[in-house]
Structures are given as C-alpha cells and as structure tokens.
Amino acid sequence: MEDNLFISQSKYAKNIMKKFGRESTKSKRTPLATHVKITIDKDEKEVDITHYRSMIGSLLYLTACRPDTSHSVGIFARYQVASKESHLNLVKRIIKYLQGTLNHGLLYTFDTDSSPVGYCDVDWVGNAEDRKSTSGGCFFLGNNLMSWFSRKQNSVSLSTIEAEYIAAGCGRTQLLWMKQILEEYGVKPGVISLYCDNMSAISISKNPVQHSKTKHIDIRRHYIRELVEENVIKLEHVNTEKQIANIFTKGLHANQFECLRTALGFVLWKNSNYLSIITLSREPSVMTVVRLMTQQLFSGNWQFSRS
C-alpha cells in the first residue's frame, strides 16, 4: 500500500491505562454494552468525583483521533456532576476496550475523489433520564474520514421523523463547513450527498408542505430544505445496516460495531503498509487536522514531520 497516512494515539492510550491502573485488565470488543440503560440512581453509591472527572477528561482528549469512542465517552461526560458507581464501572469498560485497540488508528489514503459525503443517524429518546435523542454523524472526503460528532439533542423529539430530521440538520452544518474549506483550495464540489436511513425525514426535506406530524418543528430546522431546493445538499437513503453514523448514536453488538469502525477507516496498524505514521501525544484542533488532510489528499505528498 502506497501513499497512505496512519494517525494513532497509542502512546496516549497506554498512558491512560497506566494512570488508572488498567494495564492488565481483559479487553472488551466494544466500548459500550448494548443492554445497559444509563440512569442516575439517587440511592446508589457515589464515587470520587475528582477521579471520575479525571478519567473522563483523559478519554475526551483521546477522542480527537478516536471516533470509535466518541459516543461512549460523550455519554458518561454527562454525569460528571452526579457520578455513581455504575457510571464509573462503565467508564472502566471503555478503558478495557482501549486495551484491545492500542494499535488501531485512522488510515488516510490518497484519493482522486474530492467529493464530500455525510451520514447522519439518531437514537430516538435514547436518554432514559430526559427522553432526549442522540444525534450522530460522520463526514468523508472521498473515502477518508474528515469529521464526526455525537451529541444529545436540545429538545425532546415527538417522533423518529423529527429526531432524524434534526440529526440531518446537524449534518448539514458540517458539510457546509467542509464545502467552504474545499473552496479555499480552489475545489468546487457538486451536490453533496447526506445519507439518512429514514425515508420520511428525506421526504420532509423535499416537500415544503406542513403536515400534522411536522408543523411543530422549529423553523430553523428547515434550513436543510432550502439547501436541498438549491441543490447544495441532497438527502439520500441508505439501509440501516449500512448506516455508518449508527456507531455514534448507540451501543452496538461487537460484529456490527467492528464493521462500522472499519468503514470509518479506523483500522489496525501494520507497520510495513504505511508510508508515514503520525503518533499524536497531544490533541490537535479539528480545523488543523482537516486542513492538513485536505492538503495532503490533493497533493499526494505525505512527507511531513511527526508531531
């Protein structure tokens, strides 16, 4: 394999395991179990909040180049005020997952395709406490991952249609940002595809008529409809099993999780296969990474110093 770039935070992940005494633990295949409902039990034993926040802070720092842990770490970051023993045990599971993926990282390959593509998904009313949904999305330049997010929605969605539509709106902002960066490099992308697995949400984006199930949706959410009409963004359907953004919304079974993780370009490092390796010991800004990746993808020149 030639003209490839591999970005890893393996050294930092090892430091996390050493710092919190998890070096000899048995690894887990996923960072989050599928059957767990995360809540706050007032009668449950509290934990050292300083220790808990230290673990979360370290893991958040790691997510700069580890999209596979973005969702799970983001969930437990919500409980830094009222941390319970069950939360701490599940955070320890994330560190156990790191044990089995120390040599994994983001693989970037030279690609003549400069088309931005996005995927968006949602876990409807997935939060057991306030019944809010979790939006997730990932965005590619050709086959290379450029940006991703996993965040709880600000309001309670009354239907899956509404939740998916809001998630698509979040994806819209990321794609517009990528479009602006590409234009700075003199590249003018055509209509940008944003993939969603809910046909009803796609229909709303194409139909200006208000329906009983959608008329209450905040007006600002409908900006994506304007972008669709102007042929800036095109919402397209993708089957749920091929929805890559699913990894940013909920806990998945191991086989499905590993399949989607590979689709993100987060793979096992095999030293002889890569032209350049960057080991990141500190968190880069998202803008720095995207600009760097964009420049290198277009030039095919991966020769720059490690950071």
- CATH third-tier fold name of the largest domain: Nucleotidyltransferase, domain 5
Instruction: Give the overall silhouette.
Output: globular
Order the strands across the largest sheet as they lie in space: 5-4-3-6-7
State the major sheet.
5 strands, mixed
Q: What share of residues is helical?
A: 25-40%
CATH class of the largest domain: Alpha Beta
Q: What Rg is obtained from the alpha carbons, in whole angstroms?
A: 20 Å
**Poorly predicted runs:** 281-288, 296-307
Work out the helix count. Answer: 9
- CATH homologous superfamily (4th level) name of the largest domain: Ribonuclease H-like superfamily/Ribonuclease H
Count of strand segments = 9
- The domain tally reads 2
What class do helices, strands and sheet pairing give?
alpha/beta
What share of the residues does DSSP label as strand, in percent? 15-25%
End-to-end Cα distance: 23 Å
SSE pattern: EHHHHEEEEHEHHEHEEH
Mean pLDDT: 82
CATH architecture of the largest domain: 2-Layer Sandwich
Keywords: Membrane, Receptor, Transmembrane
Protein name: Transmembrane signal receptor
InterPro entries: DNA/RNA_pol_sf
